[in-house]
Amino acid sequence: ENFVELMQDRVSQLGVTAVYGHPAGGCVTNLQDQITVLKEGWQYPLFRQLMGAERYGDEAPNDLLCGVTFLGDEKCSGPFGKFKTVGDYLGREGWKGGNGKLWWTESQGGANEPTATFCTSSVLAVARRLDTELMIHLQQTGSNVGDSRRLFDYGFQKILTPDARGEREFPETGGIAGPEGIIRVRNFAIDHLGANRLVTAVIDDHEELRVNLWGISMADGSFTPLSAGEISPQLCHGPDPASSKKVGLVKMPANGQSLGDFCTVQQDGEHLDLKLWRIGER
Question: What band does 25 get if pLDDT is binned at 50, 70 and 90?
Answer without folding.
Answer: low
